[in-house]
Structure formats: C-alpha cells, structure tokens
Design goal:
The chain is of the alpha+beta class and 218 residues long. The chain has one domain. Helix content is 50%, strand content 16%. The longest helix is centred in the middle third of the chain and has 29 residues. It starts with 27 loop residues before the first strand and ends with a strand. 27% of the residues are buried.
Length: 218
C-alpha cells in the first residue's frame, strides 16, 4: 500500500482501475492522510528515541556514551568532548541499513506468502520500496507484511541495544530502534485502517501512487 501523495513510477504504465475478483464489489481507493502520518511518525520517533535512550542508560550506566563522549580532567575542572564523527558514523550506517532492511522485510514476507514482490528505488517514495504490483493480496497477508518490519527490526535493535558488544553496536541499536519505529508510521496507520475493512477484503497496488481494495459482496 502506498501514499496518495507519491508520484507514479515513470517506468510503469499509467494506472488503470483493476477489475474486482469474482464475488467482490468495485475497487475502493486507499489513500494515506499525509499530515496525520507525519505527526504519527514524529511521535513514534520520539518514543523510540526516548525509550531506547532510557534502556541504553539503564543497561550501561556510566559507559552508555563511551566512544562518542570523552570527559577529561583539566586544571579548571573537566572538559567534555563530543566526537561528532563517531555520532555521524553511527547515524549514517543506521539510516542506510534501516531503509534497506525495512523494505527487505516487507519483500521477504510478500515472497514467503506466495506473491512476487518488486524491490527497487524511486524518488517518489524517497528511497527504497517493496510492493506486489498487479496482485490481489489478502487481508491477513497485508497485515503480516505491514507489521513485520516493526517487529523484526525493533527486536534486532533491542538485542543490540541491550546485549551488543561495544559502544558502536549499542548506539547503532538505539539509532535503529528510533529510525525504524518512526519509519513504521505509515505501516501502523494502515494496520489501524485494516480494522475498518472486511477481513475477507483483498488489496491491489497498481503502482507507487494507486492502491485499491475490494470487499466481498454480501
């Protein structure tokens, strides 16, 4: 499922309204409220950052920021040095891997569920994407695809944060938790939206801009 504000992939034909499967009603457009999702992303990012930070400090105490902060005695007291290069290094690695791995988990669950996912890069979505174009995806499989990156990558992040050897992996886990939790805002909104849609509905992505769902005729 995709954002209503994105641009159609230029390598794909213009969107055409898909035909409903047998026994299903007409296509209904699925759109994302961009402002609400951005607000949710900010809230989830703060939850990941503050929660991860609290766990990191509780787990490692005075060693929590070893490698990025140095405190050295001076004649007048203490000098605190923040190693910006180390912080940026952790963030750059975390951003790159979070984006790629988040979409890779989407693609892996789609593949495991029997679909043929497309994994690629598009400026329209600001980076990588994974989707099963031109396929009817069940309600249950859609829910699994949506929730998987949040569960899988946040579990990895927590493991690194709490048990990772060395400061780099611990801080990387914190960054991964923050970025992935915030980056799952659209997925979380879609999961909430699924509650309002029939359990036997199917979903259909035409391209990066046009998403539809079909509910069974009663």
């Amino acid at each position: 499922m995709t954002s209503d504000d994105t641009v159609t992939d230029p390598d794909r034909a213009p969107a055409t309204l898909p035909d409903p499967p047998d026994g299903y009603g007409p296509a209904q457009t699925l759109t994302y409220p961009t402002v609400r999702i951005q607000a949710l992303a900010l809230a989830l990012t703060l939850v990941g950052f503050l929660g991860g930070g609290a766990l990191h400090v509780a787990r490692r105490g005075g060693e929590a920021f070893r490698g990025v902060v140095t405190i050295a005695p001076t004649a007048s007291g203490e000098a605190v040095t923040i190693h910006v290069g180390a912080v940026l290094g952790v963030l750059l690695v975390a951003v790159a891997l979070t984006v790629v791995c988040h979409e890779a988990v989407h693609a892996a669950v789609l593949r495991f569920s029997g679909y043929d996912p497309t994994f690629g890069v598009a400026s329209a979505v600001g980076g990588f994407y994974a989707a099963a174009f031109d396929e009817y995806v069940s309600h249950r499989d859609t829910a699994r695809v949506l929730v998987a990156p949040l569960l899988v990558l946040d579990a990895v992040a927590l493991a690194l944060l709490l048990a990772g050897p060395g400061w780099f992996l611990a801080l990387f886990g914190w960054a991964l938790l923050t970025l992935n939790t915030g980056g799952a805002a659209a997925d979380c909104w879609a999961l909430w939206r699924l509650r309002e849609i029939d359990d036997e509905a199917v979903f259909y992505d035409v391209d990066l801009r046009h998403s539809y769902y079909f509910e069974p005729e009663r």
